[in-house]
Predict the 3D structure of the following.
Amino acid sequence: MAISMHIITADMEDIMNGEMRLEDGRIDLTSLAETMWKQGRRFWWLLLLLAGIGAAACSFLVKKTYQPVYTAFAAYAVSSDSVYAGNKNYEQKVAEQIGVVFPYILTSDVLREKVCEKMGTKTMPGSIDASVVQDTNLITIRARAASAGRAYELLQAVLACYPEILHPVTGVLRMELVKYMDMDTLVDSRGCEKLVNQLIEYDQRLYKDALTGVYNRRYFEEQIKKKNENAGVAVIDMDDFKLCNDTLGHSVGDAALRTMVKTVKHCIRKTDILIRYGGDEFILILENIKKENFFNKLVQIQSDIHAANVPGFPKLQLSVSIGGVISSKETVEHAVMQADKLMYQAKEHKNMVVTEDNASYVAPGVANRKARQQILIVDDSEMNRAILSEMLKKDFDILEAENGKECLDILQQYGMGISLVLLDIVMPVVDGFEVLDVMVHNHWIEDIPVIMISSEDSEPYIRRAYELGVSDYINRPFDAKVVCQRVYNLSLIHI
C-alpha cells in the first residue's frame, strides 16, 4: 500500500511540476484530464469496488427506512330515513354534507379509542381518511397500514364503529382489500378512476331496473317496505301485457313498459318514488300528497298513459289499472297490499283507477263480472250459436263469432277477458284447427280453455284436437244438460 501511494504521489508531482503547467502558471485542463484518465485505467477495479459498496449501502438504508403502505377500501351508500329516501339528488347532498364532517370524525379521540379497543391495541396501527365520490351518494373510506392484513383489520374496526357514530350511513356497498402500495403514490389515476366507476356501477345495478331505469323490487324489499310513510301508495298494472308480448313480441312489450314509465315520471315529482315490482306491475309512492289530490293524480297518470304513443307502434294503445290508498301510520308494505287489492278491482273493468273512496261504487260491478264470465261461441251455423247461447246465457255473458278469423279478432281484443271458447272445427275462412294453431303459438291455450263441439267424431279428429290442447270434446247431436254441466265444471276450474 505504501508503494501504491508513492507511485500516485510521484505521478501527481510530475503533473504539477512538469509539462502540465503552462508558462503563465495556468494548468492545461485537457492534458490534465488525459493524464488522469490514463492513470485511472490502472485502478478501474478500485473505482468499481467503491461504486458497489456505495450501491449496497444505499439499498440497505432504503430497506431500513422505507416501509410499504397497503390500502384497504370500503364504500358507504348514504340514505335517509325521511320521506326523501330514494331521491338521488337529496342523497347526494346528504353525502356531501357528511363528507364535510368526515375529517373531524376520523381524527376524533372517540373514534381512535373505539378502534383501538376493537383491535386490542394502545395506538392506531395506521391511518384512515375518506372522500365523497363526485356526483354520487357514495363515500369511500381508506385504511392504510404497513401490511395488507393490518390495513384490512383497521378498516374492519373503523366500519364496526360507524353505526354508533354516523347514523345516516346505512350500509357497506363494497369492501375490497387492494394488495398494492399506497394509492396516492403507486396506483395510477386510471386505477383510481376504475375503482370509482366500479363503485358507481355497483350502486346502479343494486337497486335499478335494467329495462326502465326506475327502482327495482330489491330496493323495495331492502329500503322501503318497512318504513312508515305519510304518502299516497299506488299499484299500477298494465292491461293485457301478456297478450301484447305473445302477439306482438317482447320487444314491443319492452317499448310499452318504457313508454309507460316515461309517462308516469312526467306526471310525478322528483321526490316521488317509482318501483318496478315485477313484470308489468309498478309501485308508486307519492310522499305527503293530500287525499283530495291523490285520486286526481292517479286519474291523470291513467289518462296520459292511455293517450301515450309507443315509438314505432302508433296503433298500439296502452291502458293501465290502478289501485291506491293513503298511508299514514302503517308500513309501506301494508299499504301496497291494500292498493294491490284495489288494483285487482280496477282490473276487472280495465283502464280504471280505484281508491278507497270509490271502491264501494266499483265493488258491486266487480262481483257481478266475476259471477258472469264471458264465453265465446264460434260456429258458422247461426242456429247452432243460438242454441248454445240460449243454453248458457243464464249463467254467462255470451260473445259470438261465425268463423275462425272473427274468433281470433275477439281473442286479441278481449284477451284474458274470455273465460272459455266453444269451438267448431269445420268453418269458412279459418277453421277450428287453424284457430287452435294460433292459440298454441301465442300461448293463449294455456290460459283460455277450449271445448271443441263438432259433428266430426272420427278418432283422428278427436286425437288432433286433444294434441293441440283442447280441454274437452263434445259430439253433435249433444245433450243440453251435459253441455251446460261440462262448461260449468270447466269454468270453475279456471276461475
In short: Confidence is low (pLDDT under 50) at residues 1-25, 80-86, 167-189, 363-371. The CA atoms of residues 70 and 181 lie 5 Å apart. The domain at 217-369 is CATH 3.30.70.270 (Alpha-Beta Plaits). The chain is about 50% helix and 20% strand.
